Amino acid sequence: MRVPLVFAASILLACAPAASSGRLVMSAAPIIIAHRGASGHLPEHTLEAYDLAITMGADFIEPDVVSTKDGVLVTRHENEIGSTTNVAAHFPDRKRTVVVDGDTITGWFVEDLTLAELRQVRAKERLPQRSHANDGKFLVPTLDEVLALVRRREKETGRTIGVYPETKHPTFFRSIGLPLEDRLLGVLGAHGFRGRDDAVFIQSFEVGNLRALKARTPIRLIQLINDGGVSPETGGRPYADLVTPAGLRDVATYAFGIGPAKALVQPVGRDGSLGEATTLVRDAHAAGLAVHVWTLRSDAMFLPKAYHGDAGAEWRRFAALGVDGMFGDFADDGVRALRGSATR
Ligand code: G3P
Ligand code: CA
User: Fold this and answer.
1) What's the total number of domains in the chain?
2) In angstroms, rounded to a whole number, what is the distance separating the alpha carbons of residues 132 and 141?
3) Residue 300 Cα to ligand 2 middle (Å)
4) What is the pTM of this model?
């Protein structure tokens, strides 16, 4: 089933689900994006984590996308998969050191395994403070499998469920002969995600691949912006330049919106107190760009002290600041905070 997004005149309004119609319609409510699935509850980037996020009521699920040795797109946050899988136990001899985007990393790399080999591997929780009850149980899914899940759950629920893929290390993957972009457009297209009004955003920390994608697809693009540093590509752009009014106008020539680190909108002091909100939301909107911030996390070690242990307060804070969407590990907290209830 292919369900279009329906847009009103202003692109600055967010999309929220119209439950009975199965379509997304424009509203002032920010979208809730399940960051790596319901990754606060289950190992990230697994079918089980995406499925739970959908059950919780997330509007979009977020697969980060990398490539296997044989060119199959699978979902992992980085190409090094030793931190989020049991690959070391299955392929001890594949450990090696690789320079990725200027960083020297030792571990196990997804581009060294075929899909058939990756099928022997199981996901595990990355963070020590989260549940490890499901370590070793779930596969690393292909993007194709994730999109099939989305379409199946749309039929079951009558809801539109958006997908928000991120190209991870696109320059690096291109350099090793495994470019992500054509394969991404191909897999998305096979599941009916191919138009500007479809429930899909493509995101990247790089500028160059988004500019190239702009010429090849009408799918809406999101420029990710880190809190400092430079976009990881040859001739990378300082992110500080992208958030100036002139930089935002430039981004608007190829992107639908920006995905800034949340501190670029709401700074937090060393003592956990909230500083004065920046003008980034206003400036981005003035440039015609939507704003989707990342990443809201409910864990005590991540939630700023200013929210006094109330994760919902952070979701409400960013909604009050006018953002158009939020990425969060605990989509259930977002749904409860912004819409009153969540299913689990
Ligand atoms: O894509 C939004 C956010 O996920 C960016 O951070 O590092 O979690 O992919 P990361
Ligand atoms: Ca991401």
Assistant:
1) 1
2) 19
3) 21
4) 0.93
Q: Is the pLDDT of residue 73 over 90?
A: yes
Measuring from atom 10 of ligand 1, which residue has the nearest CA?
77
CA of 20 to the centre of ligand 1 (A): 31
Domain hosting 195: range is 13-78+136-339
Atom of ligand 1 nearest to the CA of 327: 2
Indicate which residue's Cα is closest to atom 2 of ligand 1: 294
155 part of a folded domain: yes
- Which amino acid makes up residue 27? S
Q: Given a cut of 80, is residue 9 above it in pLDDT?
A: no
Cα–Cα distance for residue pair 338/47, rounded to 1 Å: 25
Integer angstrom CA distances of residue 185 from 71, 85, 188, 195, 202: 14, 27, 5, 11, 10
pLDDT at 27: 58
300 pLDDT band, cuts 50/70/90, is very high
What's the gap in Å between 210 CA and the centre of ligand 1? 16
Indicate which CATH number applies to the domain containing 182. 3.20.20.190
127 within domain boundaries: no
44 found inside a domain = yes
Q: Tell which one of 210, 327, 329, 330 to mutate to probe ligand 1, the residue whose CB is within 8 A of the most ligand atoms.
A: 327
